[in-house]
Sequence to fold (216 residues):
Amino acid sequence: MTAVDVAARVAEVRERIARAGGIGVSLIAVTKAFGHDAWDAARDAGCDGIGENYAQELIGKNAVGKSAVPVHFIGHVQTNKVKSLIDIVDVWQSIDRASVIDEIAKRATAVAPRVFVQVNTSGEESKSGCAPGELDELVRRCRDRGLVLDGLMTIGPTSGEAQPTREAFRMLRRLVDEHGLAQCSMGMSGDLEIAVEEGSTMVRVGSALFGSRQRP
Fold:
């Protein structure tokens, strides 16, 4: 996958977003399992940020060179990895429990960390994210600890079926509005149209930009 290929695919994804009615929707390029060159390609193609899922992989790429666009951590956050990531990650999208909020606040330096709370809106046990009923407390805790709460994030149902996906995304949009937040991060390569139709302000796209992933 060349930088030219990635740029063409970014244009295709932005067209998909536009056809679904999206205006001003941010595009986060999910670069897990791809090399540092994927960061460069995402930057050159005008993506709004890059998303990484794994701490060690992110640390390794950052050692090659810092990203020129904001780094979003979108994988499950382990508290023992926060210290090593705090100066690399610009936005923590997958906050789902009090211990992670406390650790990020503890390790923060001069700039207040930007965070999203991840909500499990599909009810699947395999999914990370807090239960909707736990959200109020986590929102309060983020604010009490001095974190900048940008919005909420969710992952669509594994089944990919349209109606359950729409219901899960509609729930997140409602929760974002109830808490007066600016950002609603939902939608990936296979379901971004539904996400945009239901009010997503940020999509996280990997395979539609870079092709199938192959772990080393």
Observations:
- The mean pLDDT is 95.
- The longest strand covers residues 148-153.
- The chain has one domain: 3-210.
